[in-house]
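Sanity check record (used in CI):
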Amino acid sequence: MRNYLSIDIGGTNLKYGLIDHSGNLLFKDQIATPTEKRVFIGELKKIIATYKQEIYGVAISVPGKVDSKRGIVYYGGSLPFLNKLNFKELIQTEFGELVVAIENDGKAGALAELWLGTLKNKKNSAAIILGTGVGGGIIINNQLLQGSHFQSGELSFMVNNYQLKGYDKMVGMSCSSVKMIEQIATALNLPDKKDGLAVFEQLNLKNKLAWDIFRRYCRRVAYLILNVQSVVDLSIYAIGGGISAQSLLVETINQQYDEILLELPLIKKTLTRPEIRMARFENNANLYGALYSLLQQEDYIND
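Expected output for Transcriptional regulator:
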C-alpha cells in the first residue's frame, strides 16, 4: 500500500505525517514554522528528504489563495513570504519522481470531512473552520468548489456588519474563535487570555458574563451559515477548528440558528434547514485533506 507525506503549513507550526492510501495516520510530528523563506525551504526539503524512500508523493496544506493545478500559493495568509512560491516545481525539481499536490488550508479541512468525516457521502455540503479567522470549503456534487480564481470558501472576507470600519466589519474578525476566547478571558480577568479550556469551563458553569459573549458569537456564526445557505443550498455544515472539540459550540450554534428562524418565519418556510454538526477531524484535518486532494488529482490523471 502506498504511503504519502502530508504537510500542514500553519502560521505557528509546520505539521507533517505519513498517511497511507486508506487514510491511516502512521506517524506525525511538527516543527515551528520558519519565518524566513530561505530557512523555510531548507526545512521543507529536509523533511521530505528524510522520508523520501518511504513515500509515493507529497501533499501540502497552506494558507493563502492556492492554484492547486499548478501548485502555486499567492499571498500566503499569515506567511506572506510564501507569495508566488511554486511548491510543485520546487519539490519535483529536488525530488523528481514524487507526485505533489497543494491545497488551501480551509479547503483541505473540508476535503478531510468529505473523505472520511462528517461530510462523507454528502453530495452538497460545507466545512466552516473557526480559528484566528474563518476558513472553509464548499462541496457541490461531491466536488470541492474552487471558483474562477481558486478563492471560493474564503469566508473571512465576507462583510457582516456594514456599520463598523475597517476589517472589523468582516466575518474573519466577528467570527474569530481566537478573538472570542480572548474577549471572554479578558472579561473574566483570567490570567491566560488564550486559555480556551478555562473559558469553556466557565461557559459550562453558565457564567453569565462569559455566556453572553459566547451566545452572541454563536449567533454570528449561525448568521454566516444562513447567508451561505441562501446562496448554495447545502444539506449539512461541519464546524471545524480546535474550538469545535467543545460540543457546546455546535449545540449553541444550532440553538441560535433556530432562534433566527423563529424571528424570520418567511425564511423558515422558504429555506430548508441544513444539519449543523461537529467536524470529525480537529488538529489533523489539514493533513488528511491535503492528501485527499492529491489522491483526487491522481485519480484524474490516471483516468
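The radius of gyration is 20 Å. If this sentence no longer matches the regenerated C-alpha cells, the check is flagged for review.
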